[in-house]
UniProtKB/TrEMBL annotation, chains A, B:
Residues 28-87 form the XdhC- CoxI domain. It comes from the Archaea. This is XdhC/CoxI family protein. InterPro entries: MoCofactor_Util/Proc (IPR052698), XdhC_CoxI (IPR003777), XdhC_Rossmann_dom (IPR027051). It comes from Halobacterium bonnevillei. Transmembrane segments: none annotated. Pfam families: XdhC_C, XdhC_CoxI. Residues 213-357 form the XdhC Rossmann domain.
Length: 393, 393
């Protein structure tokens, strides 16, 4: 069992699906459609089972991959999709067996990769959010198991893989749900009313366009930020104000490199609400020129390297020019940049920056997950209190 | 100018210094000894200027590397150390020139790499904290610029590079400072009383042994955790309870791999207060067996993958066996594991885990650095208040 392609970024999984679709092979696509209990991945996680390769992507942490490969052979031969339920709830008797041991119940949709999946990969390649809607329960008049339509948030309607409107599908519930899931890149299964008292189970797989990270700067320290951001599924643009620096060679993990100027920055970068920016030119004036545009843009995250006093000097310089930023423009500014993790090496600095961008992108308050749920021994104490009555301080 | 070795982890820089010392070349070691203003790296940051290579490590984000290479040639020829001050405070006239632009004033010690540095790299290789003390001001009777002694926290004394006691050095201030800096891996310059009213300026460079991260588990998801932890300067041990899995091949970023059993876990792993642990076997019983030892160990961080309810079940199972953990044992437990960054891909999960370990290792409360200092517009508002008098709510 070859294992090299398990931990690729999600963006690469979708890109690989696109390539294999173009190659018109007989691959099988596996998608987690439902999860109960303690599973490693969420619904929507994908693994492509190449007809002749090791596969790419991950469904579990290694619990199911062999089983999936075997099941894929059957799906490939029959040419029909199939949903398989894997019950991984722990069997105590197996504790010292060789099984790696996993938890949870996972439903996986296995399907022959064919042209009905093309609108998803093309939307992804174009940087558009999309949702793939697949019927999981058959038997309702006019709907078969595996029937598929797409939701495009820009259009707002449901269309068949060939682009024709899917008028017979129940629109109201599905489009509002698909809209939300497509933008967030999340997936869920929903049961909808299909008329005449019948219900339809539909898997709604939202595939969000990857968020973009624009890194202003061309110093060595841009390298680790670019590398770690790409591994975390950002499309990374490295932007410099001066040409001739061979940016594409120096930052191989960047999706693109741009040599821009203050006047054309907006046109060159198409900043929107899915664009995040890190400003690290190490040049006071260059940083200011980048900020001037970024702070007025819809970018939800603008990180600025350097101590806070440096930004206060920039604000003074802006004020001298009569330039004052609205309060919500400063809401997007993160300086000093990064989460407070205490590291000082190039990779540690980059790790704290990318962690911060992830938190903002996902609208999270960065803190220990255990704090979000309350510390374990508070719960344990509380449980003990119930049994033993109030305890003194 | 070759740039490939700039962003290596710090551990690799020290390892490379060790290799080059063994090779007895004519390399030059550059160490940041002081920083004023806005610099990218802290004192103690190192760059090795090979006599025939591109160098390894980083002093700035690319602002000084060419100048350092030129200065190294002189140091190499003269065979004498030299401290050079680089004033990178911005020159506004250079804004549109080709300089990459940097801030701050940086003092760099350049020295021919020779046997006087061997105790530092050997301590590092042995996993011992060490401090290198170097005289930066000469002219005091008995002390020359560049004179060097070592502090070993286990011994508590100052010794010369040949191992003999450095009795003439002023011990009291230097040893307490060196002790603190060696353990924390930080560096600083101190002025000490050298007797007869004379003072001595000494650079104290603490080089802490890298912290260790033990990862319990052998699933695919261990790969990204191992990779990101190694980039962030942890020595990573991958530990499994079952043999025959070819762990070293599967986890090439691990410093070592161990097949252990519950009974020999403590002996195999030497858990101490610089050891952190991540438990991700995906097996309820294996996780419990690892936790049973880890929670009683001095390890400051024990992260457990899975929902919190799963650990509560473990506590119930422990309680059934009459096993109760002290409250401070549970202080080290982090479950669910990781910082709340919202990502769900293998790399995003690993990123949030390694970010959490870094924060605990460095004793930080994970949050936006801007929150630590108060949000910028609070300060701006406060400043405005001073000028304009109290503003209404």
């Amino acid at each position: 069992m070859t294992e090299t392609n398990w931990s690729v970024p999600e963006t690469e999984v979708v890109q690989r699906v696109h390539e294999r679709l173009d190659a018109a092979g007989t691959d099988v696509l596996a998608t987690v459609v439902d999860v109960e209990g303690n599973a490693y991945r969420r619904p929507g996680a994908k693994m492509l089972l190449d007809d002749d390769g090791p596969g790419v992507g991950s469904i579990t942490a290694g619990c199911l991959e062999d089983e999936l490969r075997a099941a894929a052979t059957g799906v490939r031969e029959r040419g029909e999709p199939e949903t398989i339920t894997y019950d991984l709830m722990e069997d105590e008797a197996d504790v010292w067996g060789m099984g790696v041991g996993c938890n949870g119940v996972i439903d996986v949709l296995l399907e022959p990769l064919d042209e009905t999946y093309r609108p998803a990969v093309e939307a992804f390649a174009d940087g558009r959010d999309v949702a793939v809607l697949t019927v999981l329960s058959g038997g309702v008049d006019g709907f078969e198991y595996g029937d598929r339509v797409y939701y495009d948030p820009d259009d707002g309607g449901l269309v068949r893989p060939d682009g024709s409107p899917a008028e017979e599908w129940p629109h109201a519930t599905l489009t509002s749900m698909a809209d939300d899931l497509a933008r967030r890149g999340r997936a869920d299964t929903v049961t909808v009313d299909a008329g005449d008292g019948a219900t339809l189970e539909v898997f709604v797989d939202g595939i969000a366009a990857p968020a973009e990270l624009v890194v202003f700067g061309t110093g060595h320290d841009v390298g680790p930020v670019t590398e770690l951001a790409a591994k975390n599924d950002f499309r990374v643009t490295v932007a410099g104000f001066r040409g001739g620096l061979d940016l594409a060679d120096r930052f191989p993990d960047a999706t693109r490199t741009v040599t821009t100027s203050p006047g054309s920055l907006e046109d060159d970068l198409q900043l929107d609400e899915r664009t995040h920016a890190v400003v690290m030119t190490h040049n006071f004036v260059d940083d200011r020129l980048a900020l001037e545009t970024l702070l007025e843009s819809p970018a939800p995250y603008v990180g600025l390297m350097g101590p806070r006093e440096r930004f206060e000097e920039m604000l003074d310089a802006f004020a001298d020019e009569g330039r004052v930023f609205a309060e919500d423009a400063l809401e997007s500014l993160y300086t000093p940049i990064g989460l407070d993790l205490g590291g000082g090496s190039p990779y540690q600095i980059a790790h704290s920056i990318v962690a911060e961008v992830l938190a903002v992108e996902n609208d999270r308050t960065p803190r220990h997950l255990r704090e979000r749920e309350g510390h374990i021994h508070d719960r344990v104490d509380a449980a003990a209190d119930v049994g033993a009555g109030p305890t003194p301080e």
